[in-house]
Amino acid sequence: MTSPAVEAVAKPAAAETGGGAVKRGIASRIVARTGGGLVSVGLVVVALFWLVPTFGLLVSSLRDPQDTGASGWWKVFSHPGQLTWNNYDKLLSNDDMMKAFFNTVWITVPSTVLVILIGSLAAYAFAWLEFPGRDWLFLVVVGLLVVPIQVALIPISKLYGETHLFGTITGVVLFHVAFGLPFAVFLLRNYFAGIPRDLLEAARMDGGTDLTIFFRVVLPLGLPAIASLAIFQFLWVWNDMLVALIYADADSQPLTVALQSQTRAMGANIEVLAPGAFLSLVVPLAVFFAFQRHFVQGVMAGAVK
Questions:
Q1: Beta bridge mates, 283
Q2: How many CA atoms lie less than 13 Å away from 181 in the CB half-sphere?
């Protein structure tokens, strides 16, 4: 027989064990349920909410200014006849806006390509080449990441004035390249350092030079990281207005500055502003979705061995 004292002690312990089992069962069921279709539905809802401003801008760019001033863009669901391409016809016939769009392309594409090319070469040197002061120089490059753009605006303005680069596309491109390189070298160097040494040694034994190894081995293996860098650099330069507002003139201003000038000059020029803003938005979206697969691979690189 069990004494009353032992039974008194055993009953609370059994109760705690049973209660803990019930709690663990409820928690495990919640985790299992949220790990399935419920989370997917929630993510879809969040994504749709994030896309509402973009969709609203698209609808506004397809409505007449009178309709836009009279009601909200959601009225198009009950009056689909409000949709028209007249605003885009006006945008395409606006020489200033079209010139600004192509200026944005001439600024963004070279800035992205040069950062990728120079940054990847420097990253390969920091990762796999031996030279005096390599580690200290890399620390200097990493330290440049914390230098804000605003610090360099006045000194670069004086330098551009002396070299006649002020107000030119070349000056804007050089500024973006200079401030994009530290992040590019930091990102690509860490990725290139994870490439197995055996691959590089095998290529060197086959007679490959450093340039051959770089272009035929390192670049193909580093494509995910390079794609991630290309997206970051492209979005930063395409959406920039501060640098272009200071260093670009009326002939070299990009689309962001042109839209700001249209807002300041004409106020309610919605038939040009709305399609111009959507045009400025849709190009980065297209670039992101085009490189999305490589972008995810680059972000997850090194997370799982």
A1: none
A2: 16
Chain segment 243-267, per-residue pLDDT in tens: 999 999 888 899 988 888 777 555 5
Nearest to 273 by CA among 36, 97, 16, 127: 97
Q: Which helix (H) or strand (E) holds 94?
A: none
Q: Which residues have a Cβ under 8 Å from the Cβ of 91 and sit 6 or more positions away?
A: 97, 98, 272, 275, 276, 279
The C-alpha atoms of residue 284 and residue 290 are separated, in whole angstroms, by 10
Q: What φ, ψ does residue 167 adopt, rounded to 5°? A: 80, 15
**Token pair 């992040």: residue:** 183
Comparing 20 with 209, the larger pLDDT belongs to 209
Q: Which two tokens stand for residue 267?
A: 């106020």
Contacts of range 284-292, beta carbons closer than 8 Å, 24 or more positions apart: 284/234, 284/235, 284/238, 284/239, 285/54, 287/231, 287/234, 287/235, 288/231, 288/235, 291/227, 291/230, 291/231
Read off the pTM. 0.77
Rounded to 10°, the helix 37-61/4-34 angle is 30
Q: CB-based contacts of 17: which residues, under 8 Å, 6+ apart?
A: none
Q: HSE, CB side, 13 Å, CA atoms: give it for residue 26.
A: 5
In the chain, the amino acid numbered 145 is: L
Mean pLDDT of the chain: 81
How far apart, in whole angstroms, are the C-alpha atoms of residue 10 and residue 207? 77
Q: Is 248 helix (H, G, I), strand (E, B) or coil?
A: strand
